[in-house]
Write a structure and sequence with these properties.
Layout: H1 12-48, E1 61-65, H2 68-76, H3 79-85, E2 89-93, E3 100-101, H4 121-128, H5 139-143, E4 148-152, H6 163-180, E5 187-191, H7 203-216, H8 219-222, E6 228-231, H9 233-237, H10 265-289
Parallel strand pairs: 1-2, 1-4, 4-5, 5-6
Antiparallel strand pairs: 2-3
Helix pairs in contact: 2-10, 4-6, 6-7
Length: about 290
């Protein structure tokens, strides 16, 4: 008598699913490896170039961390030219893929690699929680090569959905302020986030955005923290007439149109000199105060 052994049939869909999962894991592994190598590459470039960051200990070296709205302010508002004319080195850090621009207005070819390219309040809290090293081995150590550090969030931050989100933003900035207090040899300038164009927000959310800007510029946030100042970008850009449709939102005169929340050239040309003058005056005031 012949005995026949029946082999269990393999489910081809299970095999395909397993192969798909393995493929995804392999791709993710390659992506993570490439990302880590890219981080190490830029860290190496930053370390090798660290001698080019001229820090004289007298607050003449300025770094501005921003994204597209800040880029427009620098270009249209002639910000770098004004600092250069006053005898200051003005550097700026854009999106990570665009990287760092030096005092001569030249792209350096490297970046400080801001964590996740996140300049929202939670992103800055993560940045300021990094360990400070003597060499720019991470983003915080990179920005701390500069003695005056200006940082801003972009307009999506101004779409504050509820009171809980507003409270969370305030908590992040208190956390950042606690770190700033540890470095009196540096001056930090917060820029309030710019407002949104009316079609991209609601009156309630825009009202909370103004409340957040007002809080960042208030004595409640600033008093007792002499190396911290606030440039109120929001209130220079936002409509202030409660009866107007642009109240707490990007002023009609400063809009591109078409739902674009980036301030236009007129806004940048108007505010650029105010920004530069505020930073220079703040540096001068702190220079006379700083015990170092």
């Amino acid at each position: 008598m012949t005995t026949t052994t029946t082999r269990p049939k393999r489910n081809k869909w299970s095999i395909l699913a397993l192969l798909l999962v393995l493929g995804i894991l392999a791709v993710a592994g390659v992506w993570l490896l490439r990302r880590q190598l890219r981080v190490l590459y830029y860290q190496g470039r930053a370390i090798l170039a660290s001698d080019s960051v001229n820090n004289d200990g007298d607050f003449h070296n300025i770094l501005f961390i921003h994204h597209s709205t800040g880029r427009g302010l620098i270009a249209d508002g002639a910000v770098r030219e004004q600092f250069t004319a006053a005898g200051y080195d003005f550097w700026d850090m854009d999106y990570n893929y665009l990287g760092l621009t030096n005092a001569q207005g030249e792209r350096t070819g490297y970046t400080y690699f801001i964590p996740d390219d996140n300049t929202d309040p939670d992103g800055y809290a993560a940045l300021f929680s990094q360990t400070l090293y003597e060499q720019p081995r991470n983003a915080f150590s990179g920005i701390m090569q500069h003695q005056v550090i200006i940082f801003k969030s972009c307009f999506p931050t101004s779409d504050i959905q509820d009171e809980a989100q507003l409270a969370a933003y305030q908590a992040y900035y208190r956390q950042i302020r606690d770190v700033i207090d540890q470095y009196p040899d540096h001056l930090f300038i917060v820029m309030t986030p710019p407002p949104l164009e009316a079609s991209n927000t609601t009156p309630e959310n825009a009202g909370r955005a103004r409340a957040f800007a007002n809080w960042l510029a208030s004595d409640e946030f600033l008093a007792g923290h002499p190396n911290l100042a606030t440039f109120d970008f929001f209130n220079l850009l936002a409509g202030d007439d409660p009866d107007a449709p642009d109240f707490n939102m990007l002023r009609t005169a400063y809009q591109h149109g078409g739902g674009d929340s980036h301030p236009n050239k007129e806004a940048n040309e108007t505010i650029g000199p105010l920004f530069a003058a505020f930073v220079l005056q703040t540096i001068e005031s702190y220079r006379t105060f700083y015990p170092g």
